[in-house]
Design goal:
There is one protein chain. This protein has about 375 residues and is of the alpha/beta class. The chain folds into two domains: about 25-40 and about 290-380, Alpha-Beta Complex (Aspartate Aminotransferase, domain 1); about 45-285, 3-Layer(aba) Sandwich (Aspartate Aminotransferase, domain 2). It contains twelve helices and twelve strands. Helix 2 packs antiparallel against helix 10 (about 275-310), helix 4 (about 95-105) crosses helix 5 and helix 10 crosses helix 12. The structure holds ligand 0PR. Ligand 0PR binds near residues 36, 94, 122 and 240. Ligand 0PR binds near residues 168 and 193.
Amino acid sequence: MKMEKKGLARSDVDALLSGFEEKNISFGSGRVFGSMCTAPHDYALEVHQRFHESNLGNPGLCAGTSEMERCVISMLGDLMGYRDATGYVLSGGTEANITAMYIAKNRSSGKKVIFPRSVHFSVLKAIKLLGMDPVPVGLDEDFRMDTAELESKIDKDAAMIIGVAGTTELGAVDPIREISDMAEGVHLHVDSAFGGFVLPFLEEMGMTDDRVGPWDFRVKGVGSICVDPHKMGWSTIPAGCLLFREGHPFNDLAVGSPYLTSPKAYTLAGTRNSGAVASAFALMKHLGREGYCDLVRRCMGNTKYLGKRLEEIGLSKVMEPVMNLVAFHHPHPERVQKAMVSKGFYISKVCDPPALRFVVMPHVTKDSIDRMVETLRHVI
Ligand code: 0PR
């Protein structure tokens, strides 16, 4: 394709856009069951547009948005047991994990990163980028990091341990308190990119069981946490948050930026989106803890419903869901996934054990579940 010498009329471009739009699958179609993102709350979208032009990479020009960013971090710090947490908003869990791992490496003499096999692949990406040494740890029968194996792997070369509060594939929560007790000063980072906007509200409603222990800053050894407003925070893409207990992460990344409004630049990204920062701020203020409890209760209700419907067609759960994510044993998840795509439904899979995976986000309803299950029944 070439750029025209004389531009097209908007109506002609609109026609082109419609062609592309038709190829996208919207969350509103009720056909997406394998995504951790969702259609943002309409107020979040409205606010995003209102604040989209400021660049947080040059914060002197957007002091207001910068202040909202600090408010988002302090609201999350408060929710996660440490009001004085420092941090900032970035593009999502991947950038948060890369940044946390860079900082841990910087603050330590070791290069080993110890993580459960269930860790998100962004950690493996960061290991490549940062030249760190991977030390995977196996899982227990509840798909949580095996602490006996962890203990045998911690040594003086460990730069950090990563625990996951809400694994990508199954939604399991690692035993963070036990991990912290073993960490002995090694930086402990908790990836709650997905779970961070679910677990506090499940706890508030008394909806967790004994597979979920304390996982946030209430555990003394937790040094950093990441959590994404653009997942279960119901806000706009791109918004992830990185929170630290000690030492503002800005100090670890700072380089001189003489021609900007601030003398130093502090973040991995240069130009930084701020529509999503305002959007996360506004939605957290608007929904409040009660609003998020309602959302999480609804998603958990639908997860239970999906579980019941799929058991009715002969499938069995890999584990009782901890959060709004559920997987079902199947010997050939890829084949099922492909067949479902050919019928217009998007489900996901787990590799080990082989299973079909469903993320029950806010856009998933009982009606959309019924339509999907009917198709899955034929496919299977
Ligand atoms: N940590 C955990 C626990 C996650 O589940 C995800 C989710 C991330 C980090 C990375 O978050 P960002 O994607 O916001 O950087 N990741 C989703 C997933 O793997 C979304 C996703 C989908 C990411 C497709 C990459 C991708 O190619 O389902």
